[in-house]
């Protein structure tokens, strides 16, 4: 027993010395903190009991007469062995992490791990969990090597990163000051050794930033140029001076309108300028056309006709004062689908008769035999031919009309009573139809106006806004050649000012003054307002009255 007591005392002493050493060392204090933390979590008692158990097992080993004086690692090995044994026995409840703690405690006690470097602590803390998982091997020395290796890696990495920053700053400074190849090679070499592709980018951007800070007056483009120069210089292995004298650019000013000093390269410019000039000229001519139109002085007879018939754009109050029933839908002198009693009010007896459709022709062979004197209505598409027929007879709906140009595609024959035949011709020019079809219509119209027996008059309808167009002139020339009587009728007078209606009438009369087949006076109507319709009725009914087949 006395021997046993002696051994116990010795062991206690050893343990006290070890714990004292650990407390004195920096890592020992850390270990102490951890134990305190454990205590805070309520494991203090268990720890005490563990220590007691350790002591007991140590005692047991010592009773087993094992000599530890030679090798200090032996007790730890023994401890672990006993712990392993205990897993099957009394210490089943103990968790692995607690066991690990105990292992660390042993390490601390026996001072196997060298914590001389201060940087170790945070690394160890950060990777403590990983380490705990990995530190499973029984060999303490291997564990200590692994930990020390990790620590070394961590410290070297931190050193590297700090060195990197220093290097980048240094390289930036050197590139701006000296810009020698050697310095940059060093930098690139370092970047390569670090094996980070982004590093070089970072370096270059940093360099640019620093250069900007250093030379705030230099524009970014210039600094970029400098960088390019630097790179070139480095590639060639020659020194590039930052303060090179700049070459002044010669600026040659060329007169854009002067063609004499142009080179072949400036051909495009010449072409463009010519195009612009042509455009200006066209605009001027266009302007002059409008200006010319405004200078037309209508004759007093035309002006009085326009005023008497309320032609042109008018206010409702004006129409009301003139006796028009403004409450009726357009045209004002019209009642849609009028009855025979309503037709009685038409001044001219001729147009009191009922309008009836009797034939349509696509080709000249299908024209009906000429039984009645015919009055045809020709003109460009959408000029208002069909509408005028309806307006003259006050029988809206007999002749079909549309907003879309090209509705009338055949020559349509309408009988007005038993004395007159009204013919609606297809329009020419602007129409939503194929070119071949339009050409066919035009040919048919030309054939009709030039060859038709019984055709007493062609009312050539002209839009007041646009006046005579080349196609109209074509038809006029044809009728002149074929000696077909034609009368110009201005339509849609309600969309322009009265003075412009008069000007247009005057303009057309002047242009056709030399023509022989043209019938005067020029008529002006509006199928919408009914203005001038009565006058046209009077003129046309005279034809029927005196016409002889
Ligand atoms: N403001 C106004 N519009 C009119 C007048 N006459 C006709 N219109 C309109 O002009 C468009 C064309 O009328 P249409 O009578 O179909 O013309 P069109 O000459 O027969 O046309 P095509 O059959 O294609 O040759 C329609 O929307 C009419 O409402 C008018 O005197 N004044
Ligand atoms: Mg029509």
TrEMBL record:
Q: Region (Disordered): which ranges? A: 15-102, 115-241
In the UniProt record, does the keyword Membrane occur?
A: no
Alphabetized InterPro entries for the sequence = G_ENGB_dom (IPR030393), GTP-bd (IPR006073), GTP-bd_ribosome_bio_YsxC (IPR019987), P-loop_NTPase (IPR027417)
As recorded in UniProt, coiled-coil segments are: 264-291
Arranged from A to Z, the UniProt key words for this protein are:
Coiled coil, GTP-binding, Magnesium, Metal-binding, Nucleotide-binding
Q: Where is the composition biased (Basic and acidic residues)?
A: 24-37, 56-68, 75-84, 128-141, 149-170, 192-216
Which Pfam families would you find in this protein's record?
MMR_HSR1
Looking at the record's lineage, which domain of life comes first?
Answer: Eukaryota
Residue stretches of biased makeup (Basic residues): 90-102
Extract the GO molecular function terms from the UniProt entry: GTP binding; metal ion binding
Per the entry, which co-factors are needed?
A: Mg(2+)
Residue limits of the EngB-type G domain?
A: 371-546
Keyword match Cell division:
no
Give the UniProt family note. Belongs to the TRAFAC class TrmE-Era-EngA-EngB-Septin-like GTPase superfamily. EngB GTPase family.
Q: What is this protein called?
A: EngB-type G domain-containing protein
Q: Which organism is it from?
A: Lithocarpus litseifolius
């Amino acid at each position: 027993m006395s021997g046993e007591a002696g051994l116990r005392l010795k062991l206690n002493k050893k343990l006290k010395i070890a714990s004292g050493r650990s407390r004195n060392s920096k890592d020992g204090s850390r270990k102490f903190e951890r134990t305190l933390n454990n205590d805070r979590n309520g494991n203090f008692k268990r720890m005490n009991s563990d220590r007691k158990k350790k002591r007991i097992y140590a005692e047991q080993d010592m009773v087993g007469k094992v000599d530890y004086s030679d090798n200090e690692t032996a007790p730890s090995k023994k401890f672990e062995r006993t712990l392993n044994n205990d897993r099957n026995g009394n210490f089943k409840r103990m968790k692995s992490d607690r066991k690990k703690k105990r292992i660390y405690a042993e390490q601390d006690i026996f001072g196997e791990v060298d914590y001389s470097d201060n940087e170790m602590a945070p690394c160890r803390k950060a990777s403590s969990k990983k380490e705990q998982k990995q530190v499973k091997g029984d060999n303490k020395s291997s564990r200590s090597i692994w930990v020390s290796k990790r620590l070394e890696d961590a410290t070297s990495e931190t050193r590297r990163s700090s060195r990197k920053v220093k290097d980048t700053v240094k390289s930036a400074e050197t590139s701006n000051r000296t810009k020698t190849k050697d310095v940059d090679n060093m930098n690139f070499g370092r970047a390569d050794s670090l094996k980070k592709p982004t590093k070089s980018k970072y370096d270059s951007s940093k360099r640019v930033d620093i250069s900007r800070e250093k030379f705030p007056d230099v524009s970014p483009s210039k600094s970029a140029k400098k960088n390019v120069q630097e790179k070139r210089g480095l590639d060639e292995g020659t020194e590039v001076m930052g303060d090179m004298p700049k070459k002044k650019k010669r600026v040659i000013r060329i007169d854009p309108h002067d063609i004499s000093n142009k080179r072949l390269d400036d051909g495009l410019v010449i072409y463009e300028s010519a195009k612009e000039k042509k455009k200006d000229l066209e605009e001027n001519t266009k302007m002059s056309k409008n200006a010319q139109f405004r200078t037309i002085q209508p004759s007093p007879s035309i002006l009085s006709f326009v005023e008497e018939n309320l032609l042109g754009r008018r206010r409702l109050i004006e129409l009301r004062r003139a006796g028009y029933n403004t409450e009726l839908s357009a045209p004002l002198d019209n009642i849609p689908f009028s009855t025979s009693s309503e037709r009685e009010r038409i001044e001219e007896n001729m147009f009191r008769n009922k309008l009836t459709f009797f034939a349509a022709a696509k080709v000249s062979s299908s024209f009906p035999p000429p039984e009645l004197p015919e009055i045809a209505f020709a003109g460009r598409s959408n000029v208002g031919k069909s509408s005028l027929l309806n307006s003259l007879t006050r029988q809206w709906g007999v002749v079909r009309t549309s907003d879309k140009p090209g509705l009338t595609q055949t020559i349509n024959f309408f009988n007005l009573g038993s004395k007159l035949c009204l013919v609606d011709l297809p329009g020419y020019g602007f129409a939503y139809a194929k070119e071949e079809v339009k050409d066919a219509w035009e040919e048919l119209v030309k054939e009709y106006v030039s060859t038709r027996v019984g055709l007493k008059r062609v009312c050539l309808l002209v839009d007041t806004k646009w006046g005579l167009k080349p196609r109209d002139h074509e038809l006029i020339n044809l009728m002149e050649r074929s000696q077909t009587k034609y009368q110009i009728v201005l339509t849609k007078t309600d969309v322009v000012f009265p003075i412009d209606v008069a000007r247009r009438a005057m303009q057309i009369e002047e242009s056709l003054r030399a023509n022989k087949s043209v019938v005067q006076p020029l008529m002006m109507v509006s199928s919408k307002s009914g203005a001038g319709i009565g006058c046209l009725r009077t003129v046309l009914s005279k034809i029927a009255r005196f016409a002889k087949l």
